[in-house]
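3.2 Worked example (two chains)
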Amino acid sequence: MKITVEPGDPHHPEAAALLQASHALMQSLYPAESNHFLALDDLNAENITFLTATCDGRIIGTGALANQGNYGEVKSMFVDPDARGSGAARALLDGLEKAAREQGLTTLRLETGPDLTAAVRLYTYSGFTPRGPFGDYKPDPLSLFMEKTLT
């Protein structure tokens, strides 16, 4: 199974379906004030790099990098449940790290839910460590904030 990561369009029907599934999952797990996902239109902003993971001609995952000036924020990471364990999430995260380096960013940050154990495991394995809230985020027991210094 060969996974390809490349720039994508969040409005592509397959990408949009994955993003909507991600939003539905977050809404089922956390109250509105603890959900910080970006709307599809927001993923087309100039400071956003949106990537898709494709396998056998089908989009199986999404991820985005929001360039916040002095750091990059990982957003919209989601892999089709049928493709979990395929390496798509790792490939997307690698692609986002590469994009951050190409943009001259030296730090990646993210916010995720503490109940998303597979995501937390991926981020921890990839070198992210816990940190406090950043940007416009407020302290929230339903948010886990993490950071990675890019070398």
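3.2.1 Second chain
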Amino acid sequence: MPDNLNFVFLGLSITSSWGNGHATTYRGLIRELTRQGHSVTFLERDVPWYAQNRDLPDPEYCRTWLYSSLEQLCDEHAADVRDADMVIVGSFVPDGVAVGKWALAEATGLVAFYDIDTPVTLAKLQRGEYEYLAPHLIPQYDLYLSFTGGRTLGILEDHYGASAARALYCSVDPELYYPESADVRWDLGYMGTYSDDRQPRLEAMLLQPARQWLQGRFAVAGPQYPAGVHWPPNVTRFEHLPPSEHRRFYSSQRFTLNVTRDDMTRAGYAPSVRLFEAAACGTPIISDSWEGLETFFALGTEILIGGHPADTLRYLSGVPEPCRRRIAERARKRVLAQHTAAHRADELVGYTRQILDRLATPAAVL
């Protein structure tokens, strides 16, 4: 087996972080793979909404190609797929089922599915919505990489026939996310794209507290919020913040909020990247509760748990400054020890080598 592996990613986007969390995940992971000496090619569908919002059009740590159609992908990049030791097809890729079938047919090495949206994916499969993954493809992938761990991995293997389901959680890039000296502008902030199922928690944990504590300062950053949302006057709104501004946004908050989509809450073991990013910036987190959260942070000492307006207001007014700083320091230490992009690159290479070693080992002679 070669010391340096050749990876090809077919992902949603690496060039634009607009309205998605995929780009920052791919950027950190792929940069670390390249630093380890591996070769990486990223193939991305060229779509208008990302073309208008490209904050990293040409990443220096991988070969990046945009394709306009499935036909162009097949015509121009079959050799890339055939030459790869590992091809990784991501969730929410346009025409993802067809892309997966093509990759499986062309590849001479391994092919994996990288699910950055596992709870959403499983809910879609249960509803018969095969937007980017179909049940019959799952057993054909050599590896199912999941943003969600816990019992979800067993469901993927036992119910859907995945040959190897492994957790590859989101991560943080410590070169981009670290404590920054900044004026504290807000008592509580939140960053996330709008979703119907997450909005009630945002209402309960930030907007209602803002209405009750008019002297408090709050901020919400993220696109696609409908016009009907009533923003209290003490809530600052940002339609979109590029990754280059995330660190300052977190550093300008006394506390930051994490709220979780229903599918992820039901699945458990599905940390959001905002948890790791905020912790790396030294900003203490107030989060809703879900199964498995305690495996990422110690509850009460590394992260604060809430769900109601009274919880939020109690933390904002009742946590002394030295205690607030200790919570932030403990969470940052945990993240840097376990949840950086370098950790994920090591895990991905380890999974890849395990399967390649197994396939290279001759079957025992009976």
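3.3 Remarks
Residues 185 and 252 are 5 Å apart (CA to CA).
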